[in-house]
């Protein structure tokens, strides 16, 4: 557009007006403003125009960066909030690999989809602007080029369809790979010890091959879209110029100026098509993210506004039944657990012990019957406020890759108050002497899943964490079953010291650990068979007596 203006100030007014076509009014408009059309004026105007364009480009990029960061942050915080309130019953039947992949790799791919979607809109706006100028300059030439540009979409439509399908496949393969890697990490010791590591690695390699095959297909489609871009542009322009001059007597000067606009518009058009193809490359992740969020939103635990009061009297289970699908897991469970009472749940595997604990902790909701915490119906309570009163120690203790202090306090600030609570908790868990022997004491790093600790030390850290919370109810799910006899005795001594100070609910496989509890609940096939002390069950319950005899107690 500036070339005709430069010709105008050089004395070639007629030629300049012809080349500018319907845009010649710009020259007249500048002159009517009282601005003399000199070489200096035009050059200054040209410099100012492109400086303004550069500033606009900078602001645009900054805006897109901020928008993209907010987009990623919103996705991640939304997913974390949904996971926090996710129904536990739904989670245990979910594909963990898909969850891992969606919350990590898929977020970045969705961010890329957002980026290319915005670039597509941006290029679409530029197409509209350039075509508008071209129509003002030479409507006939503009129509011809638009027809040619429209035909290019036929090629890209085929590329779009194949790219979208390849993107879906890539998302599925990535989820599978993530799940298999998680299993490799979780079962690494077993795989190494049994010589099965090579067999499992072969399975992983097959998945990697499938992932890379999908990536290669997407890359080839993207390469095609990039390679045909410029040849297609030049071909369209050449054909349109030929027809415009040969059949419509177009002026070559006006065509050249119009051509500049159209070359820009066609460049933006093919760039828009290419960006859309890039967007479709990540569309599988976008579809997966939408589906994943939908599933999480529709499997949230019910939100209640009634806050749980401090536990003061007893937990009452009244005629509780629980189903998994059509299968009945628990049958007519009626049980009362008084505050600061210690009870043990015993029975064969599959008898319903862990399921019962999951009900008491609010992880599962009974299908019939009620669970009362004092006089409050658990189904009507805000679960998080209730669960903050609970402590839970499992057979496989949860140890984070951080210091002892952070593992026990759950990353509380290192203050005098928290240190006092920390010392009290580790003393109750019989960890104090162990910590004092360490060079860095409570700041000692524990490694991945507490790899530097013995089984008993890991269990005691788990117990200390729950005691630091100052809980009312402490649940121990076979916390000593994986330990040797000496370590089991140490943990048992730690548990015995807590009796009378906390409500203890213990799932026990080894009956030696529960000799001193107040009540033992004998379970079988999802039912309570009998409740009594160790001596009472040994006298009146044949099955309990048989188990005791088998364990040579």
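Sequence proposed for the structure above (553 residues):
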């Amino acid at each position: 557009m500036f070339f005709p203006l430069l010709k105008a100030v050089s004395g070639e007014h007629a030629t300049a007006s012809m080349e500018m076509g319907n845009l010649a009014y710009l020259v007249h408009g500048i002159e009517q403003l009282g601005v003399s059309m000199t070489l200096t004026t035009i050059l200054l105007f040209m410099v100012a125009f492109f400086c303004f364009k550069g500033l606009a480009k900078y602001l645009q990029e900054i805006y897109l960066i901020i928008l993209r960061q907010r987009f990623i942050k919103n996705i991640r915080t939304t997913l974390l909030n949904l996971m926090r309130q996710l129904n536990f019953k739904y989670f245990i039947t979910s594909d963990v690999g898909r969850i891992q992949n969606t919350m990590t790799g898929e977020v970045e791919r969705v961010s890329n989809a957002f980026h290319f979607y915005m670039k597509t809109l941006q290029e679409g706006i530029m197409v509209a602007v350039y075509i508008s100028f071209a129509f003002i300059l030479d409507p006939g030439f503009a129509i011809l080029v638009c027809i040619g540009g429209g035909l290019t979409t036929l090629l890209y439509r085929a590329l779009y369809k194949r790219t979208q399908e390849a993107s879906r496949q890539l998302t599925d393969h990535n989820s599978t790979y993530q799940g298999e890697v998680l299993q490799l990490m979780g079962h690494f010791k077993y795989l190494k010890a049994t010589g099965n590591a090579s067999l499992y690695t072969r399975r992983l390699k097959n998945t990697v091959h499938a992932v890379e095959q999908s990536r290669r297909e997407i890359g080839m489609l993207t390469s095609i879209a990039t390679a045909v871009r410029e040849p297609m542009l030049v071909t369209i322009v050449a054909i349109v110029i030929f027809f415009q001059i040969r059949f419509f007597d177009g002026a070559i000067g006006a065509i050249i100026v119009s051509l500049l606009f159209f070359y820009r518009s066609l460049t933006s058009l093919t760039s828009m098509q290419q960006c859309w193809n890039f967007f479709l490359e990540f569309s599988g992740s976008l579809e997966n993210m939408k589906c994943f969020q939908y599933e999480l939103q529709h499997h949230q635990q019910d939100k209640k506004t009634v806050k749980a009061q401090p536990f003061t009297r007893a937990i009452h289970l009244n005629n509780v039944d629980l189903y998994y699908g059509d299968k009945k897991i628990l049958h007519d469970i009626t049980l009362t657990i008084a505050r600061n009472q210690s009870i043990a749940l015993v029975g064969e595997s599959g008898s319903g012990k862990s399921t019962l604990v999951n009900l008491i902790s609010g992880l599962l909701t009974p299908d019939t019957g009620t669970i009362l915490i004092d006089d409050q119906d658990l189904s009507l309570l805000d679960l998080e406020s209730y669960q903050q009163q609970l402590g839970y120690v499992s057979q496989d203790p949860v140890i984070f890759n951080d210091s002892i202090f952070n593992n026990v306090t759950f990353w509380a600030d290192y203050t005098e108050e928290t240190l006092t609570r920390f010392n009290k908790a580790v003393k109750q868990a019989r960890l104090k002497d162990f910590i004092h022997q360490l060079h860095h004491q409570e700041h000692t790093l524990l490694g991945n899943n507490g790899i530097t600790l013995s089984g008993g030390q890991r269990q005691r850290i788990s117990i200390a964490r729950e005691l630091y919370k100052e809980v009312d109810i402490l649940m121990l799910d076979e916390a000593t079953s994986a330990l040797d006899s000496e370590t089991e005795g140490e943990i048992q001594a730690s548990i015995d010291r807590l009796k009378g100070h906390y409500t203890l609910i213990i799932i026990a496989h080894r009956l030696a650990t529960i000799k001193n509890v107040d009540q033992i609940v004998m379970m079988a096939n999802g039912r309570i068979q009998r409740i009594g002390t160790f001596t009472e069950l040994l006298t009146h319950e044949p099955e309990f007596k048989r188990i005791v005899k088998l364990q040579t107690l």
